[in-house]
């Protein structure tokens, strides 16, 4: 029976910082790992393979939906200047509410940025860190790339379909436009900074992955993060 229990995925909500956050949980290992999805993403849309295939004996795996994403609606998603910091606090507080004292972070894209901030701000709580498709600043070139995905009707069917099914077309389209506006605001600062000054504060073992064909995040971002996190690989 226990082997069946350990491979099943629980889906639940818990109140954190005044919002009801949805998460999925599986596995029974001693090493707790939080999976952080990308822009508009959720546990279901971004981490199906990980929830299914990660080692359930070694790991306890949690995938969360940040506020306004996935099934963590309401509230509707908004993008104040500190939305990454807000997500980082929500993520850590969610894990603490679930009684995990120490855990690792696997963050993709926006979830990678959130994970970098969390690892820097909560060094005693974060065990290890893996990020891919993340960036610590926003350049004018990045803004040009983001504007290329502003209109979701131009997205490929494959990428669009799961998100449209989850959100409905209207919320999906509106939130994507709001994200482009929100992320582009960082480029208005002289250095385009999101979290560059926090990278030296990251003390845990860190692994940075980057897709050579990543259409949204130029590789220089991954190289910058690697250079500024001491001992990262």
From TrEMBL:
Entry-linked Gene3D superfamilies: alpha/beta hydrolase (3.40.50.1820)
Protein name, UniProt field: Valacyclovir hydrolase
Top-level taxon: Eukaryota
Organism: Eurypyga helias (Sunbittern)
Residue intervals of the AB hydrolase-1 domain: 32-145
Keywords (A to Z) from UniProt: Hydrolase
Pfam families, per database record: Abhydrolase_1
InterPro entries given in the database record: AB_hydrolase_1, AB_hydrolase_fold
